[in-house]
Amino acid sequence: MSQTANTPLVRDQAKVMNRFDLISRMVKKLHRDEAVIGGIGYSNFDLWAAGRRPQNFYMLGSMGLAAPIALGVAIAQPERKTIALEGDGSILMQVGALATIAARKQKNLIVVILDNGAYQITGGQVAATGLGADIVAMARGAGIGQSMWAADESHFDELIDRALAEDGPWLIGCRIDTSKPVDTTERDPAQIRDRFMRGLGVKK
User: Fold this and answer.
1) What are the tens digits of pLDDT across the range 13-23?
2) In whole angstroms, what is the distance from residue 26 CA to residue 130 CA?
3) Domain 11-199 sits in which CATH superfamily?
């Protein structure tokens, strides 16, 4: 299904896709040491499984902070594309960050929302997105003009390519299924922080 700036998709029109497949597609496109902040939960786990890059930061236990941390990294290193990989339940915890991102107009920031309408890691409780809340519409309302749903896998590829090549901020919404993660992130906060700092060149 096509999507234009004048007739954007709504959540229910987007295809339900596989989380690990989408993350793997995204990681394969990263060739310029882009930073990726993985939010807590299964998106984090599948980011770990898709490719253990030193420029990846794996959140452990801090729900909703992937987008704010990614914004901070993007501000600190404006020449580096920075991606926040976040679940729908987590972004709902920090929905005000969308307005901050819009106001800041950080050109090198990309936010990817993986939306299955549930708090899957804690038992599958229904999230507000499963009851009709549309994160992309909320982002557009907050002022992030380049906010849209990925209609399907090929459209996701196209949107990631554009976001990596063009100025942002961008927000890409992806409806996903409830598949279990492929692997589980190594739970060593000090090592994760150290590896990430080295990957960004701020620690030798």
Assistant:
1) 999 999 999 99
2) 25
3) Thiamin diphosphate (ThDP)-binding fold, Pyr/PP domains (3.40.50.970)
